[in-house]
């Protein structure tokens, strides 16, 4: 796009290609109540996610992100965190939503499901976990998460502390 811009008072001419379109960042104070709502739930034993900058991204820019939120409740058994992700099929002890349709949310730029019906034991708990997933994976807290836990990290959150392990990925 051709523009009439200046940089430190010096005119700039030519085509300027926009860089990454990152979402606006939010402060840690806005993440705290979302995280606390899940921590305060007595049935949730632990939860976590992974965060990293990929080494290679099929030619696209390699950008830091947090993803893969998982939750283990007192009804879940086993230590394999991959079994506790929220995924498209739902979570075995938190429930799931079915039906509805996916639409683009103009406020967040993410896709969201509308008109879905909840199936499970506690819809309020499910919604609190979904809010945490949106906060962690939505990109609005990437600076906070990167500063707090670093790059290439697997994070596990429990009431008595947070464990950070190196995350080996391709």
Please give a structural write-up.
By secondary structure, this protein is of the alpha+beta class. It has one domain (24-166). 21% of the residues lie in helices and 29% in strands. It is built from three helices and ten strands. The chain has helices at 28-39, 123-137, 142-149, and strands at residues 5-7, 10-12, 44-52, 65-73, 96-98, 101-104, 111-114, 117-119, 153-158, 161-166. The strands form four sheets. Strands 4-3-9-10 form a four-stranded antiparallel sheet, covered by helices on one side. The chain has a two-stranded antiparallel ribbon with strand order 1-2. Strands 5-8 form a two-stranded antiparallel ribbon. β9 (153-158) and β10 (161-166) form a beta hairpin. The longest helix has 15 residues, at 123-137. The protein is globular. The relative contact order is 0.21. The mean pLDDT is 87.
Summarize the structure.
By secondary structure, this protein is α+β, with helices and mostly antiparallel strands. It is 21% helix and 29% strand.
- What is the distance, rounded to the nearest whole angstrom, between the alpha carbons of the first and last residues? 36 Å
Number of domains: 1
| Beta content | 25-35%
Radius of gyration: 19 Å
Regarding quaternary structure, what we see is: single chain
Largest sheet: 4 strands, antiparallel
Instruction: Give the averaged pLDDT, no decimals.
Output: 87
Principal-axes geometry comes out as globular
Task: Tell me the total number of β-strands.
Answer: 10
């Amino acid at each position: 796009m051709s523009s009439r811009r200046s940089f430190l008072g010096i005119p700039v001419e030519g085509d300027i290609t926009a860089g990454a379109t990152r979402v606006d960042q939010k402060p840690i104070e806005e993440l705290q109540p979302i995280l606390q709502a899940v921590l305060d739930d007595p049935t949730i034993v632990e939860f976590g996610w992974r965060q990293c900058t990929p080494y290679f991204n099929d030619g696209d820019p390699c950008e830091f992100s947090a993803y893969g939120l998982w939750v283990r409740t007192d009804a879940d058994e086993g230590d394999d965190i991959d079994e506790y992700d929220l995924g498209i099929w739902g979570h075995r002890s938190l429930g799931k939503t079915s039906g509805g349709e996916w639409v683009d949310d103009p406020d967040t730029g993410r896709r969201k499901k509308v008109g879905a019906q909840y199936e499970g034991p506690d819809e309020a708990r499910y919604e609190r976990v979904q809010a945490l997933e949106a906060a962690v994976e939505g990109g609005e807290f990437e600076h906070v998460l990167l500063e707090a836990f670093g790059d290439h990290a697997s994070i596990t959150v429990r009431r008595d502390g947070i464990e950070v392990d190196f995350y080996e990925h391709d």
